[in-house]
């Protein structure tokens, strides 16, 4: 299939992680907001981790173009295979 | 609606959810141009790498039943719930990868029912295709229903749309989104979204578990707060009355570990379809094995939050009562003996819930609220009933500040959607290849079948909506699903086992074995009853012959019964009918198929090495949490 899943996967983590990290950065002084999470700024820390994961996935997906590999002939197109229906 | 647990969402949470939905539909649009043939639409062109299929393999199964049901069971029964993952999935996943995948993938069958036609005959395929199609529609409908109910209970749209429309809007919205991305991108789109969902679930629940464990003092803290039966997976399994599931180890190992689990993971097209989309036979065999590794650790993401939820805040209130646990067990077994006489059955409607609720704390689990009157639901003797299904959602609301809360809810919604999508893709394939092409229009062009697949997607969604509204009469999602699985899936594994490993098995044997297995399941269900239920939907609608300590025990034994009857009937009829010539069975039966060539693989690349590694990890996990 012509689309490497790691590209959209990387992108969604970059965007969501990015949003969370920026939001966490803006609200980092807010004691009220983070009393739920025992004082830990989950938005900032987890957002950054997600961003890094997204970056790795995105780069890996861009680098390795397995979709360009000669996967054809596909299994049912190979010689000796009776055509399906 | 339960306003005390209404979500307090801000724009940032909505933004994160919106990003997810844009991606979901975007993947569908991006893949649309690759959907040229029916092969692309139904089989993802058989070109997906093993790790992608592997993650889709577990994600497709990670619907409402998993996330909500497992969290609820974790809160209710404890770490013992992990049996559903450990012995209830991993061995079967290893078996299907090593022994069965060569026949599914190698035979070039496009679906599991089609394999049955190749191996047996037309009528066995028809029976399996029709019952499977009905089952997928039900599962997808239940997923849809659970999602709408959850959105309503959490008050996600509260203040945005009128309360009385929230349920209906949620149903329609989820239906339109799932329809959109499958209609456009077929199985590939479903698989890609399942991978996305897998990572989002991990990203959404891992910080929840981390922060929760920090709060309750880690695993050691949970062990101190909760009764020991909840923190050990094998303690008390020798007898049904000494563990919270109400099942003894024979029923657990045979019913769940063998019949139900092998019946599901080895024959259910919903999961097999993901492996069949892999790019080669070796990849296809690796798919379930790759899936088994994260599957093994999923209890820590979905069951542990349940345990944390009951350990939180009220640990003082619960600790004192926890000691009373051992005293409640004689009480339970007394009520059992009374029940088996058939005289007192109806008078103790919560016999198994009652000691359980007294025995352990409820933490932050909310009470069940009657959706109509808005007041707390009480059991017959006036004690409050707790809504364990809300364990995970309540955890999210308890620990997550706005921002990451959006991520947690996205993960939850993603799991519901994938559960639905998995069923819909399996349904459209079975409908198009095994019902429409087989019996209605045999001579259509490939283009026509591609069109039919898209129409079947619409049809499947419409039927799911109908099933979702039908499901409103069932209270417990797990019960309803288990009931359907027991009837349809349990006898099935006997048919595949004999078909793949005994060349003498005939089509007549397989068909009648399957029919009698399903009837045996129905009959067994009609004659038995869990201890705390009244005759009716829970069983004994024919006559009460035997009472089981719990509904789980009843389910497991129904499955064992169905499997045995199928095995025996298939064998007997096969001996009495003429088998097919051996030359026709090459590639379909174990003894007549050349073993997969593995000489080009290093020892560590072989599927069997991976399977052994998986099983070693499984044993280690069981020892740690024994």
Would you give an account of this structure?
The complex is a heterodimer of chains A (85) and B (626). Chain A has 85 residues and is mainly alpha-helical. Chain A contains two helices and no strands. In chain A, helix 1 (6-26) packs antiparallel against helix 2 (42-63). The model of chain A has no long low-confidence stretch (mean pLDDT 79). Chain B has 626 residues and is mainly α. Chain B folds into two domains: 3-313 and 366-473, Sodium/glucose cotransporter; 477-594, no CATH class. Chain B is 68% helix and 1% strand. Chain B contains 25 helices and two strands. Chain B has helices spanning 11-32, 38-43, 50-59, 64-77, 86-106, 112-119, 122-154, 166-216, 218-225, 228-231, 249-265, 269-276, 281-297, 299-302, 304-311, 315-322, 325-340, 353-359, 391-399, 404-440, 446-470, 477-501, 507-527, 551-576, 607-624; strands at 528-530, 546-548. Chain B has a two-stranded parallel sheet with strand order 1-2. Chain B is globular, with a radius of gyration of 24 Å. Chain B starts with 10 loop residues before the first helix and ends with a helix. Mean pLDDT of chain B is 81; it is low at 1-5 and 314-358. Chain A binds chain B through residues 1-3, 5, 8-9, 11-13, 15-16, 19-20, 23-24, 27, 33-34, 36-38, 40, 42-43, 46-47, 50, 53, 66, 71, 74-76, 81, 84-85, and chain B through 12, 15-16, 19-20, 23, 26-27, 30-31, 34, 39, 44-49, 52, 108, 110, 188, 192, 195-196, 199-200, 203, 207, 211, 214-215, 279-280, 398-404, 407, 410, 437.
């Amino acid at each position: 299939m012509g689309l490497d899943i790691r590209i959209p996967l990387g992108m969604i983590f970059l965007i969501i992680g990015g949003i969370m990290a920026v939001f966490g950065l803006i609200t980092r002084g807010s004691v009220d907001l983070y009393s739920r999470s025992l004082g830990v700024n989950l938005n900032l820390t987890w957002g950054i981790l997600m961003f890094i994961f997204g970056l790795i996935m995105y780069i890996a997906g861009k680098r390795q173009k397995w979709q360009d590999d000669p996967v054809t002939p596909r299994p049912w197109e190979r010689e000796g295979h009776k055509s399906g229906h | 609606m339960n306003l005390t647990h209404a979500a307090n969402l801000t724009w940032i949470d909505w933004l994160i959810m919106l990003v997810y939905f844009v991606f979901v539909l975007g993947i569908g649009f991006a893949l649309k141009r690759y959907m040229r043939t029916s092969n692309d639409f139904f089989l993802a062109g058989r070109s997906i790498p093993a790790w992608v299929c592997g993650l889709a393999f577990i994600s497709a199964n990670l619907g409402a039943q998993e996330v909500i049901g497992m969290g609820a069971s974790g809160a209710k029964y404890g770490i013992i719930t992990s049996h559903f993952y450990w012995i209830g999935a991993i061995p079967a996943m290893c078996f299907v990868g090593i022994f069965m995948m060569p026949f599914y993938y190698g035979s070039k069958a496009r679906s599991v029912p089609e394999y049955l036609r190749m191996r047996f005959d037309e009528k066995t395929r028809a029976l399996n295709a029709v019952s499977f199609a009905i089952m997928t529609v039900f599962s997808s409908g239940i997923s849809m229903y659970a999602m709408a109910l959850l959105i309503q209970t959490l008050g996600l749209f509260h203040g945005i749309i009128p309360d009385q429309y929230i349920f209906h809007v949620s149903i329609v919205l989820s239906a339109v989104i799932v329809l959109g991305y499958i209609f456009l991108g077929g199985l590939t789109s479903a698989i890609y979204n399942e991978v996305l969902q897998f990572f989002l679930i991990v990203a959404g629940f891992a910080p929840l578990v981390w922060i929760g464990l920090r709060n309750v003092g880690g695993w050691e803290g949970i062990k101190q707060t909760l009764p020991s039966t909840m923190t050990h997976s094998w303690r008390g399994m020798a007898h049904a009355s000494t563990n919270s599931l109400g099942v003894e180890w024979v029923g657990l190992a045979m019913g769940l570990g063998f019949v139900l689990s092998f019946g599901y993971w080895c024959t259910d097209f919903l999961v097999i379809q993901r492996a069949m989309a892999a790019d080669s036979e070796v990849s296809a065999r690796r798919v379930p094995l790759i899936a088994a590794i994260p599957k093994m650790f999923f209890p820590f993401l979905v069951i542990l939050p349940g345990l944390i939820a009951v350990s939180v805040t009220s640990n003082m209130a619960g600790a004192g009562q926890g000691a009373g646990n051992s005293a409640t067990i004689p009480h339970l077994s007394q009520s059992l003996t009374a029940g088996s006489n058939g005289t007192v059955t109806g008078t103790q409607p919560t016999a198994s819930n009652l000691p359980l609720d007294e025995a352990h704390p409820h933490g932050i689990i909310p009470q069940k609220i009657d959706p109509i009157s808005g007041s707390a639901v009480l059991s017959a003797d006036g004690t409050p009933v707790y809504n364990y299904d809300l364990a995970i959602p309540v955890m999210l609301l308890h620990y997550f500040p706005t921002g990451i809360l959006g991520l947690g809810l996205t993960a939850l919604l993603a799991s519901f959607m994938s559960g639905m999508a998995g069923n819909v893709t399996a349904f459209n394939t079975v409908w198009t290849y095994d019902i429409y092409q087989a019996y209605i229009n045999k001579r259509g062009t490939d283009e026509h079948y591609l069109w039919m697949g898209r129409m079947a997607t619409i049809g499947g969604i419409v039927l799911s909506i109908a099933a979702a509204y039908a499901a409103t009469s069932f209270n417990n999602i797990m019960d309803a699903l288990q009931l359907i699985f027991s009837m349809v899936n349990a006898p099935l594994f006997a048919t595949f086992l004999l078909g793949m490993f005994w060349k003498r098995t005939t089509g007549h044997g397989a068909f009648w074995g399957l029919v009698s297995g399903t009837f045996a399941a129905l009959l067994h269900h009609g004659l038995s009853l869990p201890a705390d239920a009244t005759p009716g939907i829970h069983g004994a609608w024919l006559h009460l012959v035997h009472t089981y300590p719990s509904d789980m025990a009843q389910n497991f034994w129904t499955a064992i019964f169905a499997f045995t009857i199928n095995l025996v009937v298939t064998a007997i009829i096969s001996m009495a009918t003429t088998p097919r010539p051996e030359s026709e069975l090459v590639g379909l039966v174990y003894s007549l198929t050349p073993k997969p060539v593995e000489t080009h693989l290093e020892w560590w690349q072989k599927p069997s090495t991976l399977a052994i590694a998986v099983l070693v990890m499984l044993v280690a996990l069981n020892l740690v949490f024994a």
